[in-house]
Amino acid sequence: MRLNPALLRARLADPASIPRDRPSPEEDLARAARSGGRNVEAAVLVPLVMHDDPTVLLTLRSARLNSHAGQVSFPGGRTEPGESPEQAALREAQEEVGLDPAVPEILGRLPTLLTGTGYLVTPVVALLRPPFTLSNQPEEVDEAFEYPLAQLLDPAAPELRRQEFRGRMREFWVWPHERHYIWGATASMLVTLSAVLRAQD
């Protein structure tokens, strides 16, 4: 497929209009308040790499981290005081994988979602035009890898699974990969991104 930046930017201009895989922001915040309001604002960069066959850049978090160790994610983390989600996502991407903040072309945001661990995450979508260089911070990232958009666009690719967690039955998406288990909030963002990309056509 070929990415159309102008159409993507227009589609992302109103995150509230994008079909959500998770509850709405209002429901997210209400759920956070019911759990004690301990939600932490965060942002991730969702980088679309402009190869002839485009991909999305993902990371495998270090097994040495205290939280979400060894999980697949997007570059990102907590939003510092005074930062916008875009600034936080670019800063974290530079810290985690050495991505020059001048390289990504920001297109817009996907809907904010609340993770099961209390992070209120804003996904920031950007284009990466090769060539660019990455240098993983080993304390945070074991590997950066790319997932083909052609597979992401297949509506039959993700699998919806159910599992009991802390006494509740939860549903979550899993995306196929030959080496990594892509699930949870990252998989949910990919489901939403997939819907946005298919809407280009």
TrEMBL record:
Keyword Magnesium appears in the UniProt entry = yes
Entry cofactors: Mn(2+); Mg(2+)
> Could you tell me which residue ranges the Nudix hydrolase domain spans?
35-169
Could you tell me one molecular function GO term of this UniProt entry? coenzyme A diphosphatase activity
Q: Which UniProt keywords apply?
A: Hydrolase, Magnesium, Manganese, Metal-binding
| PROSITE patterns xref list | NUDIX, NUDIX_BOX
- The highest taxon in the source lineage is Bacteria
Q: Which family does it belong to?
A: Belongs to the Nudix hydrolase family.
Q: What is this protein called?
A: Coenzyme A pyrophosphatase
What species was this sequence derived from?
Answer: Neoroseomonas lacus
